[in-house]
Amino acid sequence: MSLTEVTGNPRHDQLIALIAERGYMSIEALAQLLAVSTQTVRRDIRKLSEEGFITRHHGGAGRASSLVNTAFEQRELACNEEKRAIAAAIADALPDRCTLFMTIGTTVEHIARALLAHSQLRVITNSLRVAQILYKQKDFEVLVPGGVLRAHNGGIIGPSAIQFVSGFRADYTLTSTGALEGDGTLLEFDVNEVAMARAMMAHSRNVLVAADHTKFRASAAVELAQVGEISALFTDAPPPPPLAARLAQHQVALHVAPVAVAE
Fold first, then answer.
1. pTM for this predicted structure
2. Pairwise CA distance, residues 175 & 107, whole Å
3. Is 68 a residue whose pLDDT tops 60?
4. Which helix (H) or strand (E) holds 125?
């Protein structure tokens, strides 16, 4: 899947790409570029804003909100083939008999499933959903912190959780990100989840970030890290040139996982 194949509708994909590039566009400008009526653009904007791809404004549309992430249930269904490919690439890169931090997120859950073929892993995670995938492996040691449990994604946050993970030194932190900007900034939506992820990163020898291609044009409000703080980026499509240059500048390993094409 390319960077422009998001919805399965070429016009919708082009509309999303135009707004991602320019930040905001009027209905009239979109109608002209897409060669459709303003009524069609209004219908497209209404549909795509309801699905979380863009934000609807009076007279036009802008990038999706940087304050609110797409519903967890919706993200579970999005880009599954891409996430599986990324997860398989990360699993292939990890040795047996190592200690891992794993954060919250649907992509990280795919990584957890891909790790089931490994042996003798110690996993410290603040995601009950990740723990549930891994805990039955007899030669895995799965540890979860105490703290505040979030109903919408099974994540554990709070000072006691941060203190717990700070007592370990992991070989790897495995995390996703809500958005990856061209200047090399990794962004997330929730300050409490970022605090947990940063604690893990600070107590880890290597940081592996999983981000499907949609994260290259997403927006979020809370800074998670700069690319200079990570060891490797695993994705399913080549990143935009400015971001690729940043990765090369900071000698961050880039892994582009091949995605199986459905017959």
1. 0.73
2. 8
3. no
4. strand 122-125
